[in-house]
Amino acid sequence: MADWSGPFIAVDWGTTNRRAYLLDAKGVAGDVFEDDLGVKAVASGGFERAVQDIAARLGELPMLLAGMIGSDHGWRQVGYLPCPADLDDLIDAIAWVEGRRIGIVPGLSVVQGTRGDVMRGEEVQLFGLARLAGGDRARQTVCHPGTHTKWAWLEAGRVTDFRTAMTGEVYSLLREHSVLASVLGHEVKADEHFLAGVATTFAGAVLTAELFSVRARVLLSLMEAREASSFASGLLIGCDLRAGLAGAGEDPIVVLGRPELTRLFAAALEHCGRESRQVDGADAFVAGMHAIRKAIA
Amino acid sequence: MADWSGPFIAVDWGTTNRRAYLLDAKGVAGDVFEDDLGVKAVASGGFERAVQDIAARLGELPMLLAGMIGSDHGWRQVGYLPCPADLDDLIDAIAWVEGRRIGIVPGLSVVQGTRGDVMRGEEVQLFGLARLAGGDRARQTVCHPGTHTKWAWLEAGRVTDFRTAMTGEVYSLLREHSVLASVLGHEVKADEHFLAGVATTFAGAVLTAELFSVRARVLLSLMEAREASSFASGLLIGCDLRAGLAGAGEDPIVVLGRPELTRLFAAALEHCGRESRQVDGADAFVAGMHAIRKAIA
User: Fold this and answer.
1) Predicted ipTM of the assembly
2) What DSSP designation does B85 have?
3) Is-above-0.90 flag for pTM?
């Protein structure tokens, strides 16, 4: 039987990278490491060794894994827990490996009529956010920007609903493989061009038409190439906000995630007249894993 | 001085392939060939030989080239002719090589305020369509579906305006490089799933959110994988129609291009209650090149 009363390891294991934390009852015990051994970089059959590698670095301790490690491309496939769901539901659905020494946290799913959605990894941050914010609040809208942005609704500590926009992935596809590749090499900033992109989307522009126009504007000298990345990002984040705000009330939005992304989304929200509060996703992840440990100890 | 009174060669030279026609005063003189020597497949400095190769196959004749061959990735960069433009304007802007033996047709551009758009290759089909349809008509909306769908407006033989939606390219990016790759391998058909995708877009769905949901629906068994390609294509073609119909009147739309694509777009238009007429793009290209030859002979 594993001992969950002391220090443990928590891993946010995504598609392209993983981040592992050594945690104890007081918080982060010091060691954190991040590398590019996301599930895409681990060969089938190589996960046992990839897990042992973490223990070799941080200690032979109990371990909680979240994210794509529990998907059909990961180590062990752990199902999706249907929403609404709270932290107790999540803990009940943890898949245990080696007795109770390693736990793999499930993802969440939502079905509404013919619409369906799934998440993996963000659920730990969402439940952690509820703890950071002092627990049970009225309905709250959370935006978690990223490769697949998640807009989630929390109510009294439960995730009641969520929806995804593949904002970051579409931007990467355009920058790496599309006719826009040559004009999307610049850094995205929350500048006037970014906000013009957001405004263009909210004015009713059609994304696939407006994106092509970015290249045409540069070709015709209507836009500088260095402005194109921020404008195109503004178009995509504008769509993201349109998808999320359709389900949001008037309350301030919590923007949860990596600070370089939450800044962009907060600027876009402000441009739409919406208040927001940024929370670092790493803090929320640690808080969520602590809450899980406390419940299973 | 080249003799433009007899047979000549017309080439539709795109990014990924080229199609060359041997034409005479009566029409297509017989030989047509298509290969994958699009401008992307020809090394810089290799265009002279790629052009000679056509003459070796079809004869040492005068030649008209249209499409990406005139772009900065092609043989000789030929500018964009600003709209509104008619066939005479296009002919005046042809770039001549080897005296007047080889002509490269320019593309078209449009600027409206800060919006800009460009096309290369479709302009020959558009002017050809005007000839096929019996010449000068009132305002007509033309949809040319493809990698970059062009919606164009013709008035009395002039192209007055156009806009692009990067429908085909976004679909290819998703099928080849995205998280949806595993569910987009099936043939797209104008079936109920395709029409459901079109309807979902017209009901106000946000593209980047609805696309992710396609994968989630398959994961959650709300949709069969074999239905996903047609549904996702319907979402994208729905966006395409939203962009184009915003500038269209109530008249029937001419859908011009490859028959396998015009069929899909005609079905989507019908689902939106819009009449359309399909015209084969190859016929329009030949008609356009004939009209150019006649004017320069």
Assistant:
1) 0.93
2) B
3) yes
